[in-house]
């Protein structure tokens, strides 16, 4: 395997598009997938340090870094589509816990990954930060066991937080 060619990428509408439109309302339809050309286990990690959404009650902005890690099966998420999808939360009102679960559910539907986790590190509002974490391992596989283990141990060695 030498790499990808135009034929394998022709179904992508966003990558390379110079007329990108940024949606300001939540839209999971923005997400696009590409074929995973590798059969071994490996992690793909995305960090979005400029994520924003709205408090559903007050309409005030919430800011976070969203950490997304997954072990792909047959599909990968196309990164520009992921960026635009995350941007679509800009005017979406939901609680922090809901946001990370929505992101994970949309990516499970798109990718059917072996394993996935989403962690939101929200900046404080009113003196309190909320950092919801969720994960999923494909049922009946070693990834389900991995999800259980990682859930129980996800915050055993927390990073030093310097931006809040």
TrEMBL record:
Compartment(s) where it occurs, according to its Swiss-Prot or TrEMBL record: Cytoplasm
GO terms (BP aspect): tRNA queuosine(34) biosynthetic process
Main location: cytoplasm
Reactions mediated catalytically: 7-aminomethyl-7-carbaguanine + 2 NADP(+) = 7-cyano-7-carbaguanine + 2 NADPH + 3 H(+)
Enzyme Commission number(s) from the entry: 1.7.1.13
Domain of life the protein comes from: Bacteria
Database matches in InterPro entries: GTP-CH-I_C/QueF, NADPH_dep_7-cyano-7-deazaG_red, QueF, QueF_type1
Pfam families tied to this protein: QueF
A GO CC annotation given for this chain: cytoplasm
Active site: 55, 62
Binding site for substrate: 77-79, 96-97
Keyword vocabulary terms for this entry: Cytoplasm, NADP, Oxidoreductase, Queuosine biosynthesis
Parts of the chain that traverse the membrane: none
A GO term, aspect molecular function: preQ1 synthase activity
SUPFAM superfamilies: Tetrahydrobiopterin biosynthesis enzymes-like
Pathways involved: tRNA modification; tRNA-queuosine biosynthesis
Keyword Oxidoreductase assigned: yes
Function as written in the Swiss-Prot or TrEMBL entry: Catalyzes the NADPH-dependent reduction of 7-cyano-7-deazaguanine (preQ0) to 7-aminomethyl-7-deazaguanine (preQ1).
Family: Belongs to the GTP cyclohydrolase I family. QueF type 1 subfamily.
Name of this chain's protein: NADPH-dependent 7-cyano-7-deazaguanine reductase
Lineage of the species this protein comes from: Bacteria, Bacillati, Bacillota, Bacilli, Bacillales
């Amino acid at each position: 395997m030498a790499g990808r060619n135009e034929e394998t990428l022709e179904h992508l509408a966003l990558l390379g598009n110079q007329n990108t439109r940024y949606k300001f309302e939540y839209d999971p339809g923005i997400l696009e997938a590409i074929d995973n050309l590798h059969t071994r286990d490996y992690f793909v990690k995305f960090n979005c340090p400029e994520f924003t959404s709205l408090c559903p009650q007050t309409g005030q902005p919430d800011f976070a870094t969203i950490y997304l890690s997954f072990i792909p099966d047959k599909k990968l998420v196309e990164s520009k589509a992921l960026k635009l999808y995350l941007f679509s939360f800009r005017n979406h009102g939901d609680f922090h816990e809901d946001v990370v679960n929505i992101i994970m559910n949309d990516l499970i539907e798109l990718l059917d990954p072996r394993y996935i986790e989403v962690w939101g590190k929200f900046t404080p509002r009113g003196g309190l930060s909320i950092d919801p974490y969720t994960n999923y391992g494909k049922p009946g596989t070693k990834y389900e066991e991995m999800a259980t283990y990682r859930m129980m141990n996800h915050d055993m060695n927390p990073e030093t937080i310097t931006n809040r």
